[in-house]
Amino acid sequence: MSQNEKSVKGLDSIQKLRSLSSDAEFSLEERLAFALSAVELSSKTKIDSVLINSNRTLSSVYLNRGEYEKYRKLNHNNLKLAKKINDSLVIGIASLNLGWYHHFNMVQNDSAYYYYSRAAKTFDEIGELDRQVTTLVNLADIQDTERDYIGAEANSIKAIKILERLPETENYLSTKWILYNLLGVINLKLELYNASLEYHNMAYDIGKKMEFGFIDQMLSLNNMAFVYRKLGNHAKALELYNTVLENKEVYNEEDPTFYPLVLENLAFTKYEAKHSDIDNIEQMLKTAYKISDSLEDPITKLAVSIDLAKFYYGQKNKDSSLVYAKQAYDIGGETNSNQIWLESMQLLSKINDGEAGKAYLNQYIKLSDSLLLNERKNRNKFARIEFETDKLEEENKRISRERLWLTILSIGLLFTALLIYIIITQRARNKELKFKQDQQQANEEIYNLMLSQQDKVDEARASEKKRISEELHDGILGRLFGTRLSLDSLNFSEGKDAIKSRANYISELKTIEEDIRKVSHDLNTDFVSGSGFMDIISELIEKQIKAYQLQYDFKYTDDINWEFVPNKTKINIYRIIQETLQNIYKHAEANEVKISIELKNNVILLAIIDDGKGFEINKSKKGIGLKNINSRVNELEGSVKFYSEINKGTSVLIDIPYKS
């Protein structure tokens, strides 16, 4: 077995192991073993891109197994390898994964923001829109958590604008709901209540479009109700809360923590609206507390605790108010729920007398001032992180440029003689190219003269037809018409035989008149010319195909009036076909060529397809043949697309505006 065959077999084995490690039918232990084997084999190939892909597969297994530290290290390694080979996609993915690690696993928002910023910029540069949206959502979430509401709003809106350019899938709608919901929450925190309602309404409409969006709709109604509470519109808030509560059976199994939250909101809204059924309100709040406690849901329990504390304080039951306010205080500190934590401090300062009350008040003032200061710092911090990230990238680019120049200078000193030889050779090639260009220009002039001569022949032919038509109409037809009138006047002569004879002559003359009129009409009718250009193209194809010993199939439609197509267009079409056939003969090693010319939606479509060996388009863009074709198509304000696969042939598809 040759070295090349061994290499191909090794890559196949790696690909198979990766596939097995992603197969959910195997246990996580088995998938880990497959992924580790793939990485081991990939390391032996010494090909960075192969190792990167195997590392990505292994990192997914680590993530599923909850081995987050190994997940982090592997993505750091991939980031280094990706920078080495300048693979922007992998740089973006590794940065996104590291951002996720610090964001959701370690809750280190500074580090998470740094990696997310790098990922977002990379995805933007390479047009990776799906991943850019995911990254922007995570950035906005961090900024909302850190109270940088303006930054969170800006990134959310940017993500929505990108989503508008993507297909409307279920995942697309789910992400869009998250963004509009986040904008509603942000504007609520900024006390822009009308804007908050508008965004929550938009989120609700998106939920209705989703196949599995019912619970999202209920969340949007709950959020809208809360905004109406803030606006003092308790009637509307109660209406929405009751709607959500009525659908308990639908969402309770999927999210049991949602029901106690809605129950608590409904109860406290009734209390704020001064409903008289105090006992019922108290019972609803206690039920919500009991459920959230049994579910071990600290967030809902915190919300219920603070509302129970406020409720009992309003009922002048200080003992019960103190119990729930203290509980809200403890849970708020543990969960870093600063807003409710502040509310509990404020309430405790009112419930407790003397020094204890003052202590809570001082703590409230201190935390409030600290949060305001942190909010300002965070805005500057995130801007600074982005600035430092850009600065670091610029520095890396500068170092890379310096290394590149140093390498170029070193190579230049070593290969000066070779460069001189290349220059001399290039000059000779340039002369040859100039000669070919002059020859091409001469051919175009000849072709122009040929087309011009054909136009003159057509013009002379039409003129001669018109002259004969006029002669028939004004001469012969006029005399015949006069003769008929004379014969017609003799009808008044006596004798039945004479009248019958004259009538026959008159009828015959009418027939002759109609025949001549028809000939005159046919001669004077304008005829469609222009098929001559297709004859020229057919002759070109036949000659070149015969010389190149190829099989061919040439099809064209008759709905293009080539007579009125500008000569410039026809010349360039002629040359494009000629140039392409030459390229096929020189490089493609093809057996068959298919050429078609048709008209669709006022666009001339030229297609040239061969069954040759194909080529790598990105590596061949600088070839003279492709440059010439691109140049001619651009001159006609058209577009050209090249499709090619190794051993599967090449297709050249050209669109040219039809300007008749």
UniProtKB/TrEMBL annotation:
<feature type="domain" description="Histidine kinase">
    <location>
        <begin position="573"/>
        <end position="660"/>
    </location>
</feature>
<protein>
    <recommendedName>
        <fullName>histidine kinase</fullName>
        <ecNumber>2.7.13.3</ecNumber>
    </recommendedName>
</protein>
<dbReference type="InterPro" id="IPR003594">
    <property type="entry name" value="HATPase_dom"/>
</dbReference>
<keyword id="KW-0472">Membrane</keyword>
<keyword id="KW-0418">Kinase</keyword>
<keyword id="KW-0808">Transferase</keyword>
<dbReference type="InterPro" id="IPR050482">
    <property type="entry name" value="Sensor_HK_TwoCompSys"/>
</dbReference>
<keyword id="KW-0812">Transmembrane</keyword>
<dbReference type="InterPro" id="IPR011990">
    <property type="entry name" value="TPR-like_helical_dom_sf"/>
</dbReference>
<feature type="transmembrane region" description="Helical">
    <location>
        <begin position="404"/>
        <end position="424"/>
    </location>
</feature>
<keyword id="KW-0902">Two-component regulatory system</keyword>
<dbReference type="InterPro" id="IPR019734">
    <property type="entry name" value="TPR_rpt"/>
</dbReference>
<dbReference type="InterPro" id="IPR005467">
    <property type="entry name" value="His_kinase_dom"/>
</dbReference>
<dbReference type="Pfam" id="PF02518">
    <property type="entry name" value="HATPase_c"/>
</dbReference>
<dbReference type="InterPro" id="IPR036890">
    <property type="entry name" value="HATPase_C_sf"/>
</dbReference>
<keyword id="KW-1133">Transmembrane helix</keyword>
